[in-house]
Amino acid sequence: MSNGAKIVIACLLALLVLAVATGVLAWGQVDDGQPISLHGIIALVLGGLGSLVVGGGLMALVFFSNRSGHDQAVHEETRRAMGERADPDN
């Protein structure tokens, strides 16, 4: 692994630790007048995990679609139909 990759990973891990610490501190500062029930906590966790799964799945589909070549075929057909006026960088 290159030094640049190690620096990027270290920065991302530091941001993750900062975000988690901020969340924990903010959670502790909230007035306990209306606590979240166990069902509410479970719903929050499942909603967050579900969002991550959907986002990861959609990103995987983007990468698989790009590697399959179908996008390139459509791009080339569009360029041909427009008479090579389409932007070649896109």
- Indicate the overall shape: elongated
Average the pLDDT over all residues and give the rounded result. Answer: 87
Q: Give me the number of helical elements.
A: 3
Q: Tell me how many strands there are.
A: 0
Task: List SSEs in N-to-C order.
Answer: HHH
Major sheet description: none
Share of β-strand residues: under 5%
Task: Report how far apart the termini are.
Answer: 31 Å
* Cα radius of gyration in angstroms: 22 Å
The overall number of domains is 1
Helix % is over 70%
Q: What structural class should be given to the helix and strand makeup?
A: mainly alpha
Report low-confidence residues grouped into runs of 5 or more.
Answer: none
Question: What keyword list fits this structure?
Answer:
mainly alpha; elongated; 3 helices; 90 residues
Short structural summary:
The chain is mostly helical and 90 residues long.
Description:
With 90 residues, the protein is an all-alpha fold. It has one domain (3-28, 37-81). It is 78% helix and 0% strand. The chain is built from 3 helices and no strands. It has helices at 3-29, 38-68, 70-81. The longest helix is centred in the middle third of the chain and has 31 residues, at 38-68. The mean pLDDT is 87.
Helices and strands in order, then pairings?
Blueprint: H1 3-29, H2 38-68, H3 70-81
